[in-house]
Amino acid sequence: MGGPPDVRDSGGPAPRPSACRRRPPCRAGAASAEAAYGPCAKVPFSTMRTILITGPGGSGRTTVAAATALAAARAGTRTLLLGADRDDTLGAVLGVRTGPAPVGVEPRLTAWRPDADQGFRDGLAALQDRAASALDLLGATRLDAEELTPLPGAGELALLRAVRDASLAEAHDLLVVDLPPAPRALALLALPEELRRYLRRLLPPERQAARALRPVLGRLAGVPMPTEALYEAAARWDLELAAAEAVLADRRTVVRLVAEPGPAGDDAVRAAALGLALRGLRTDLLVANRVLPEDAAPGGGWLAGPVAQQRKTLEEWRGTHDVRALAHLGHDPRGTDDLAALAAPGVNPDATPVEWPVTDRLAGDGVLVWHIPLPGAVRDELDLVRRGDELVVTAGPFRRIVPLPSALRRCTVDGAALREGVLAVRFAPDPRLWPQGR
Predict the structure, then answer these.
(1) What's the pLDDT score for residue 183?
(2) Residue 325 bridge partners (DSSP)
(3) Residue 310 burial (10 A CB sphere; 0-12, 13-18, 19+)
(4) Which helix (H) or strand (E) holds 425?
(5) Contact indicator for 146, 180 with CB cutoff of 8 Å
(6) Measured between alpha carbons, how far is 370 from 363 in angstroms, rounded to an integer?
(7) What is the CATH number of domain 49-342?
(8) What CATH code is assigned to 7-25+356-429?
(9) pTM across the whole model
(10) Which of 137, 208, 348, 408 has its CA at a distance of 20 to 30 angstroms from the CA of residue 255?
(11) Rounded mean pLDDT of the chain?
(12) Taking CA 382 as the corner, what is the angle to CA 202 and CA 413, rounded to the nearest 5 degrees?
């Protein structure tokens, strides 16, 4: 596999001893799900399971999401099916119009498609209300609701907000989310963690000066200090993002990939699996959609090639994934009868949690080893940069800035190796920070 991945130090802040660390999160490599600002506000606990369904565009992920939710509901589970498409593709599959108001599809099955446009307008209007004094000071004219059009990413934020709201409502036992196609879904799933990090960097809560000192510090610095309202807004945003991140980080949350077996589907699955692994998200099942029957090409007709191609891909997938095949119905599924005929899998209680364990090899080799599962990663497409208390990991087209476990923050990076889909990063204790006699 070649030499070990390069590990570079960015020259950022030196590692420092940890003072007070909060409870570790559920998802591997994730930051704390508590608010970073002010008192330690806890994110409400939910017992709901969540299945996030994505796949390459055109793979039938919306159909599989609807069939999965229907199967769970008919098995007796109170299920909420959440969609995000601006066009009502979810309603077309279900045979029931969906929209901003949740609609009952069957007993124990509710479908909901939030209005991203209205959510964007409401959010911006509220922001203008909170910033009214600053806008007046600048002589700015407020935007009317009629002139507001959603910006790129508004739909993704609306979907995250809906996931958070559904989790906190606790009105259902299972949430099935029809995510966007895989590349956009991966960016969406990264949003809460990344936006919270930006907030902490731009408005570090520990640097929030006392209200009485702020004018004095402003005169000394020669620039206005951030107002109390700005920190309050940051705290509110952080808590909202933390609630969404907590759902993604929960051990009851899984990602289910959908793809049509074949070369294009295989490439998409490999890329998505790597991106999800880097985020520490569990993939419970790979749903092979539109699988042709064995007897689809009697006498070696033109379908013989596609059938053989599907069989070859399925065999390869079964070596690395828990695969469930859904038969091609011969037409696009429409309505609950067609969805039931697909016999989609329901909740998989045996999904293996993702772990990023740290192995203590101090006695033998003098190092601690952090094991990061990255299935499908390629040595030449890996890059590691140590930056203070964080490790910047790049794997192919994906990048994540991961907070180091507390013990590793008192170490220096000693090297890394990629073997059988697991990146092993070695850390040697820093004598300046490591407890004596360890």
Answers:
(1) 93
(2) 288
(3) buried
(4) strand 422-429
(5) no
(6) 16
(7) 3.40.50.300
(8) 2.60.40.790
(9) 0.83
(10) 408
(11) 83
(12) 70
